[in-house]
Design a protein that fits this description.
18 helices, 70% helix, 428 residues, mainly alpha
Length: 428
């Protein structure tokens, strides 16, 4: 298990680092189809691998390409949802992932052959490619097309959506006419597509800071779980019980986010989850050997639950504060930080538990530091997704205990006059 986890984590980091600009130039659909093609081929190759070094390399690449496909689905789903339903659809997809995690041991026990299990995985990804590979079933995100100036392609997809919904795109009613007018204005003069590099984040005043904080929280949420698993190990008799417990806690964390993140806001819930993670870690670090078993078990379960909620909410939060033109690259960096944190888990086994106390101290300290940094984040609940770097740069922190106004009243950093020119409060 440690070897498999390290291979998947390394592969994910390699592919996300190599493909950060893919979304910015090619879009979600191209990345999704390419990732599924590579996933199918690599999965079939793993089933036929004849040596361990070959299998190691294939597993490394397979983990990264599969994550690329899942990330493309995540972004496409998010950009097709209106603000009130973004959280529900994200949580629903996460629950389906948990169901797959729970069913995997049963499938492995039924097959009882590792090569056959790998072949079944490749077959499923191939069937998924045949079903979702057609543009009519998985179109490019109109949000990304409009943000990058590809108005003609966006018009075709929006018209297809309207026809599928039973709405006549040529109707002269106010709403459709307004959409047609806006698209005509955008396409005037045959503008060329405008692609953006992830390096554009370095020229922003606020967006880079928001991404750094969310990447930091994702890193802590993924890395601190190793200490909670280690505390749970003496309390759990078998490996499979810990496996199912962790999957169940992930489902509970998603349900918790569904019930609170829209009602209370993204930032307060992330603050609460980080606080619970830091508190549980510090208590276990200071008194695990003096506390009764049921207390250690309770704190470990609370820490795992809170850290999984922090990781899931950090991903959703990052997708809502990064602009459409580089949303894939920004979210890839945040998820990559989370996988980098998870890479700390096998260190306990590789080093024979030596230095694990120092690892716990480092992640507990980082959790406390993250708690302070979360206060600098804006509130993205019920907001439209920012389209350009300038739109994202106007998402400033708002007051924590006085509700969530549509327009932030006390920005941490004032945007430049050039960024504010030509924009109205409704765009916030």
């Amino acid at each position: 298990m440690p070897h498999q986890l390290s291979q998947n984590v390394s592969g994910t980091l390699c592919v996300e680092t190599a493909g950060r600009s893919g979304w910015s130039r090619f879009g979600c659909r191209a990345v999704f189809v390419a990732s599924l093609v590579l996933t199918t081929g690599l999965g079939a190759s793993e089933a036929l691998a004849a040596s361990f070094p070959t299998l190691l390399v294939l597993r490394l690449l397979h983990g990264g390409t599969l994550t690329g496909a899942l990330l493309a689905l995540y972004l496409a789903r998010l950009e097709l949802c209106d603000p009130p339903h973004r959280l529900a659809f994200s949580v629903g997809a996460g629950l389906f992932s948990v169901v797959g995690t729970l069913l995997l041991p049963g499938l492995a026990a039924l097959v009882q052959d590792w090569c056959l299990l790998q072949g079944l995985g490749a077959l499923m990804s191939g069937l998924l490619l045949l079903f979702w590979g057609f543009p009519a079933l998985f179109p490019e995100s109109p949000c990304w097309l409009l943000a990058t100036g590809q108005v003609a392609r966006a018009r075709k997809i929006l018209w297809r959506f309207a026809e599928a919904s039973g709405v006549d795109p040529e109707d002269s009613s106010l709403e459709e006419n307004s959409l047609a007018t806006e698209l005509a204005v955008l396409s005037a003069g045959s503008p060329q597509p405008r692609y953006h590099s992830p390096l554009g984040l370095l020229r922003t005043r606020v967006t880079w800071r928001n991404g750094l904080i969310l990447g930091f929280s994702s890193l802590v949420g993924g890395g601190i779980r190793a200490s909670f698993r280690r505390s749970l190990a003496p309390q759990v008799p078998t490996f499979y019980l810990l496996y199912f417990l962790e999957a169940g806690l992930e489902a509970a964390a998603l349900v918790f986010l569904l019930l609170t993140a829209d009602r209370c806001g993204r930032r307060p819930v992330l603050l609460l989850g980080t606080m619970a993670t830091a508190l549980a870690s510090l208590l276990l670090l200071a008194g695990a050997q003096y506390l009764p078993g049921w207390t250690v078990l309770s704190l470990s379960v609370l820490g795992l639950l809170a850290s999984q909620a922090v990781s899931a909410l950090s991903s959703l939060f990052a997708a809502e504060v990064f602009p459409t033109v580089i949303r894939g690259a920004g979210l890839g960096l945040v998820l990559g930080a989370g996988f980098l944190g998870q890479a700390a888990s096998p260190l306990d086994t590789l080093h024979g538990r030596r230095g694990f106390f120092l690892q716990e101290v480092v992640f507990a300290s980082l959790a406390v530091l993250t708690l302070l940094c979360v206060l600098l984040l804006p509130e993205s609940r019920s907001r439209g997704l920012p389209q350009s770097l300038q739109d994202a740069d106007r998402l400033h922190r708002s007051l924590l205990l006085r509700g969530f106004p549509r327009q932030d009243q006390r920005p941490l950093l004032l945007p430049s006059d050039s960024c504010c020119a030509g924009h109205t409060p409704e765009q916030h």
